[in-house]
C-alpha cells in the first residue's frame, strides 16, 4: 500500500502543540521503528489472541507521517474462518465523532455555519435545542437528556427508528444540566450534529463525509453503517460467553449515524491521523483539541479526549458497539499515533484496546511514569493507595459512601495484597442520573487486572470505589 506524506509531523503539531503551556516538560523522543519494535508489538497482539480475549485484533502505528506498522491477528470471522487484516472493515463506534466534528468544522471554515449558532437555528422543531450551541453538542456539554428512557422509545436497538420520532420523544423530557456546565457523553449530541451537517450542506452526512473527507484522503473502505458496499469479509462482532464467542446483536444504523456509524479499517484510519490537517485549518485543529473549561471533569475537545502523557499532549478516542471495540490515539509532539480495533465485547475478560494501545505507546515512546498527567487519574490512583494502606480521609467521601465503606470492609478487601499498581488506563466517563460522574479505568497489578470504577458526586466528594475482575 502507498504510504502518505508526512503531514502528521508538521501541520498537526501546529494545531495541537500551540495549546501546551510554556515550561512544559520536553517531549520524549519516539524510538526508531525497527523489526525489534514490530516484534514487540506483534507479541502484545498475539498474547490477546492466545489468551482467548478476542477472535481478532488489528493494529496500526503511525510515526513521522508514515504508516510504519499495520497488521491483523486472529480471525475477522470465526465461521467460516477469515483472517484479520489491516484492510478488514470494522464498526468503529465512538470514533465516528471525530469525523462528524470535522464535518461541522469544515462547514464553519466555509462560512456555512458558526459554532456558537443555536441548535434551534437548524433544528427548529427541537424545543430543547434552544440555548444549546453547536459547539456544546461537539464538546458533549449540551446538557440534553439521553434518549435512553425517553417515553415511548423501545430499548431494542436492533429495530429501526425514525430520528424525528426519537427527537420528539426526547423533547418531552427535562434537560440534565444547563448548557455548557457538565460534560456528559450523550449519543444524541452527535446524532444532532449529523442532522445539522445534512441541513446545512444539503446532502446526507454520509455523502458529505464521502465527498469532503473519505474521497480526498483516499479512504476507500470508510463509510457510515447502512450504506451499501460493506465487504463480505468485514469483521463480525462477537460477544464472549461461557460457551465461547457468539455473534453479537447488530444495531440498526438509525441509532448510529453521526455518533457511532463509522465503518473503517486500520489503513484508512491511519490516513485520517496523518492527513487531518490537510483538510482542517490550524484554527479548526486548535478548536477540535481545546476542551471547554469545566473544573474537575473529563477534558473533551470535539471528538477527542484531551489528556497529557509524560508532560506532553495526548489526544485519544474510543468506541464500543456490541461485538466491537476501537481505540485511536495521537502523541503529536512525538509524531506518533496508535490504532487498535478488536471484534469482541463482554462485561469483562475481553481485549481492551485502550490497554493494548497504552502498552504499544510505551514501546514506542518509553516513559518513567505509568500514569497520565490528569487530575482525575491522579486522584483515582491516590485512592487505590489509600485503600491499600487503610488510611482514608473520610472528609473526601460522601456521607452515604463513608458509612458503607467501613474500616472492617476495607480490611476485608485487602487491596494491599494485589501488589504494586503497574498501569492505569482510562476507558470511559459517564454521568449517572443522580449527577455523579463515573470514571472507569483498567488497572493492572502483578498477577491480575481489574475494572476500576471511581465515582464522584457533583460536589466533588467520592461516592463509589469498585474493583471488578
Description:
By secondary structure, the protein is α+β, with helices and mostly antiparallel strands. It folds into 2 domains: 1-369, DD-peptidase/beta-lactamase superfamily (Beta-lactamase); 375-468, Roll (Nuclear Transport Factor 2, Chain: A). The chain is 30% helix and 22% strand. It has 14 helices and 17 strands. The protein has helices at 11-17, 35-50, 96-109, 134-138, 163-170, 187-201, 205-214, 257-260, 266-279, 282-288, 353-364, 375-389, 399-404, 407-413, and strands spanning 56-63, 66-77, 82-83, 90-91, 223-224, 238-241, 244-247, 262-264, 305-309, 312-321, 324-331, 336-342, 344-345, 423-431, 437-444, 449-456, 462-468. The strands form 4 sheets. Strands 3-2-1-12-11-10-9 form a 7-stranded antiparallel beta sheet, sandwiched between helices. Helix 2 runs antiparallel to helix 11. The longest helix is centred in the first third of the chain and has 16 residues, at 35-50. It is globular, with a radius of gyration of 22 Å. The relative contact order is 0.15. Mean pLDDT is 87; it is low at 1-26.
